[in-house]
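Researcher: We're teaching a course module on how sequence relates to structure. For the next exercise, students receive a sequence and then see the predicted structure as tokens, so they can try to spot secondary structure elements on their own. Here is the exercise chain.
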Amino acid sequence: MVALPARASPHRSLSSRLLWLTLAIVLITEILIFFPSLGHERRAWLERHVREANIAALAVAGAPHGLLDPATRDDLLRLSGDELIRLHRASGVELVLAPPEEITPVARYDLRNETQFASVGYALVDLFRSQDRPITVIGNSPLRPKTVVELIMHERELLGVLHDYAWNIAGFSLVIAAVTGALVYFAMLILLVRPIRRITGSIVAFRADPERGTPIDAEAVSLLGDDEMAEAARELADMQRELRAALWRNARLAALGTAVATVSHDLRGILASAMLAADGLTQNTDTRVRRSGEMLVRAIERATEMVRRTLDFAREGPPPVARTRFPLRDLLAEMGEAVAAANSGCAIAPCLDDELMIDADRELLFRVFVNLLRNAAEAGARRISVRGMRATEGTEDITILIEDDGPGLPERVQEHLFRPFVGSYRRGGTGLGLAIARDLMRAHGGNLELAATGAGGTTFRLTLPGQPESTNAPAPVLRQPASS
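Model: And here is the predicted structure for the students to work with:
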């Protein structure tokens, strides 16, 4: 029983991480916007102050002889928020409003030459300053061309404006981040996290009991219908159904293989007894009895071979591979004799380099070639060509092509060529020969595949990975053969 994994804690879930990521992105965006806006707010406030100072100066110009009584002067300075106002014209400096005592400013800001970056820098410095200082501000007059307004003011009011603006922006940013984060959180929770949880839950449940597990309902995964999550759920459901069917087939094949192995073991004993009796019939002086005995011997041999192949296929695991290094030409010569003895009308033509060496289990590879050559001969081939070559220059990998001039394989046979019990193209065949041959090649780390087939013949391709010449030790035994 596979235990279901515990759900991730809320602060480590995907939705919560998306929430914090959204909050961070929104806050960073607001910070990037905050700096220029703070500098713009400071400059706008100072320009507004320059305009008010200019209006106060125009009030002085409208007085008789440009003279004001001290009370009116103090009122204008107080209303404008300045301590001193000067107008600079092309003709010279005109002192408009001045306090009775002299004021010495500690900083000077010229708005005419101040850049945006400088405004941001000054604003950030003022944001962390609490000391009230007298400062000089210079700017162009918005009311009179070619006139410059110079004023001296205290910084207290500017600092208060910047602090209030910063707090307002900070609160507004937090509200935007919270609302945006919540919307993203719930959207991701509904559209992404919940479908992922359903898919994950289905995977875990199916893994716990794949044979009886129910495939996921793809239509109930996503609220949007046909999107990527729904497509992933459909693919998962198809995979679960195929895997469950494969598990059922494998379970039935395993049970069938066990039964076949048991029956075959007993059948071999029965056939051995029948073979002794048939051998006795072949020694009879009666010609008809002797002929019948010979036919019976051949039938028993075919039955024995079928039982042997069935037992080989029913064994669990790949066969043990004992690698040795030998010339491929010698192995083909031995196989040619065996096939020619059984099929006298078939000729085998090896096209190999005398120095072509392979690292393989000689007995297992002999069985592979005998299966392929015998199948080609029994299918009606009169000539079989075997060509071997290096798969890539400078490597030990070998590619072997077995080509015959037979009638080719029917389409219905090609579809199930390497499947046992259904891949045979001969009447009465089991289809185990090619299935076992491919298993033996895969046990070597290679493969067996159908390269081409047609009216002009059939070609099988064998691939065999090579080993360095110093590697002559046998391959590790992967399993022990089942006892017969």
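Model: If you want an answer key for the exercise: The chain is about 55% helix and 15% strand. The two ends are 35 Å apart (CA to CA).
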